[in-house]
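pasting for the record
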Amino acid sequence: MRLRAGAAIALWLAFLSACFWVVGQANFTADLSAFLPRTPTQEQQLLIDQLKSGIASRLILIGIEGSDQSARSRASRALAARLRADTQFLHIANGETLGLERDRQFLLENRYLMSPAVNADHFTVEGLHASIADSIDLLATSAGLFTKALLPRDPTGEFMQLLDAMGSSPRPQLADGVWASRDGERALLLARTRAEGANTDGQSAAVAAIRAAFRETSQPDMRLALTGPGPFSVVARATIKDQVLRLSGLGSLIIISLLLLVYRSPRAVLLGLLPVLSGALAGVAAVSLGFGVVHGVTLGFGTALIGEAVDYSIYLLIQSEGTKGVASETQGNWIATFWPTIRIGVLTSVFGFASLLFSSFPGLAQLGLYAIVGLVTAALVTRFVLPTLLPPDLRVHDVTAIGRSLQVWVERAGRVRGPVLVLFVAACTLLVVKRDGMWSGELATLSPVPAADQALDMAMRADLGAPDVRYLVVVTAAEQESALVTSEHVAAVLQDLEAAGVIDGFESPAAYLPSHATQHQRLASLPPDTELRRRFTAAIAELPLQSDRFEPFFADVAKARGQATLSTEDLKGTSLAEGVDALLMPSGEHWTALLPLRVAASHGLDAERVRAALGSTGLTGVYFVDLKGESDRLYAGYLREAILLSLGGLAAILGLLVAATRSPGRVFRIAAPLVVAVA
């Protein structure tokens, strides 16, 4: 007997040592990636990609509040300068015109490669006449002085069209040369991080860098406001970690206090907690080995799920209590009398949680594995290890008197059977009536970010004109050039939808970097010098212009004819490169182009019309994605699967009970309290 007991303790200690080693190597996370499906649909995968590294996931919105407008503007410039020198950030914008002259020079020199107006018709006599007349009309506008100086070099207006196109997106208002909120009470900046949105550590470092730079560049009476996916993910992780630790600690304190009150023996409490502590350690190790990462939510919910393992040692310490101490021969009687009941309880829990292992959401499967391994480990420790560890002189407080008092109340409980039945019927009626509205259908309701922070984000996003990026057209292709070509075809469809008022606008990577095929077509549309001069003279015959003043124009067209097409390397150092980087990216073995749609909140979007328009093109690898709608559908699928798995677990438990008791009546009496309580 002693040999068997020694072997059990040795195996237990070796097992704990192995678990400690695994947990020490484990990776822990607090982002919601574990609660995304293992095998997502194409749209869900696009949603996941955007959550992890998309155009909006790297944006941090920065606000400077307090003091006066002039001081805020100075602080904005100082903060932007400090952050631009930090390699953690790809781009910092605050309304300053840094680099604007460089962008203008680049557009001017490459306007015949980039302007969508450049085609064969544009350089006919009629086309030249129309475009030159438009440029003359601009002389009477606020841009007249600039247009007049540029007219000899760009009479057809390519450069001005490019400037208008690049500036068509909503822009925040300026105050003292930097961006400011609509009420003028907050200076605004926009940062794009190098770290992906899913890299919470990287986002946390970026947020810390912004706070440190603000402390060094601001006045004491100023306040920093940070919003966006990065800061929110940092807040969410800190909130989850804090609440898991705080609430699990509070729950453990209550349990320990209750056990101390009952046992009146700290040693008994410590020994009684060994099974559940062993189970929790084994559960974390199992999840780490099975999934490679342990989610913070798994720890929080999983520890609550295996909390019932505390009962196992309670049964041993209380029910085996005898006049000679708990480590007497009564332990053998306890094993024969009470262990079968605990065993069936463990099995029902295992059967119930086993259904979660089949979930397509790794987070649910993690919970199932954690609970199963934790409960089985706790039960085995209670059965084979704990009786050996209990010293012969250990005694717990006699709770017989408490039990007899409770027994009186239990016997009286039968009197409220009628009211409980009425409540159960009322609950079932309510569930039937509210069956379609009892569940929240939006993923946002799970956000740990405070409502005030979410409201601040919406206000700052509106002030900045930052992309909401709810609606996306996504293009996937094997090569970068193919993605750009397809994006240009999609842009033609979206222009028709914009003209029809379906959307208010869109962005495309091809607007910043046209495909090589399009650039070649534009260059091929430029007529030879002699022919161009003849057409130009005919075009301005009725206009108040003299052709000899436009030699710079002819020189630029001649230079463009021999120009090489642009690539991403040529854009470096300009803001156009940032637009391409945000909208065109490699994704594994293919390329992904993003075309965000701008839609006014006042009229919404007819998604089916957009899908029909895209479908009519016959283009492959083109998808329309409503990120919010897709996230809500993802959450609905999660909820639906959780309900089905719960019902499956309930069916497995009932089947086990029927097999164990061979009595449907007994199973009904066992299950009825649970069913009533859940309802």
